[in-house]
Amino acid sequence: MTAFLLFFLMAAGLFTAPPLEYRESDPEDFPSGIPVLCYHHVSDPPVQYGVSTYRLSSDLQALYENGFYLITPRDIENRLMHVPAGKRPVMITFDDGWEDNYRFLPGTEQPDPSSALGIVQGFLEEHPDFGGGVTFFVSWDKVPFGRDSMEKFHSLMDMGHELGNHSLNHTSFRRLPPEGWKVQVNGSLNRFRPLLGLRADEVRAFAYPGGSIPRTGEVQTEMARMTWNGRPSATTAYIVDGMMTSFSRVYGNEFGLFAIGRIDMSLYSVAQLLQWRNLMVTGADRSNIRSPLQWRP
Asked: Could you tell me the pTM of the whole model?
């Protein structure tokens, strides 16, 4: 149809152009991986499930140089609205509450620079644009961080890091009946309460002990409706499955927040991570820090 004939028919009311089709972007249209990295021990020499102090420092440097920005479970809840333009979100977590995660310098209440917290805090002081902090998931089968738990809990939260729940006695949910899950989750929160007071309400993320859960999906359903002292027992929950979490997996169904994947960094490296195809790209601009992200579902 020539342009002149099309103009004539439209002017005469004999032809109506079809409306423009508008479609919201699907999560699959853009890379949407949110890496959640899981560390345990940080020591020299490294032990089982652990990494060396040099390795943790090198990982932080590599993540920073490749445009990553530290997030915590609170950012997952608000859909990453505080991640700056051009940055890739990454969450760093430390499981179990080992003493090498947070150790005081002898005779002080200052973090030992060779502990996990000391390494992270030193890096953040040198690179304040790297993000807010990391997350420590604590279980109560040991004295958290070796000793001085209350002082360490409050100080790491004051620094902007997040404290998470890793169960009462680190029993795998695959070995427990459903009624035992609430005992593990809420029993741990009851241990936090006398040490944190009102700040216990800030312990809202949960990491499943052993990193795995039954395949039935019943755990996610139970976690979504579990309560403690009138509020949700957990608002996000994390497994260890070697997978990079995607937006569609987290937000695509009502239980996606309760089985967020993590990567065991004693088995993987940042170099491997950078090769994964679903890793978010950098450079997507926004008018301000609260504008929607391009790859937001």
From this structure: 0.86
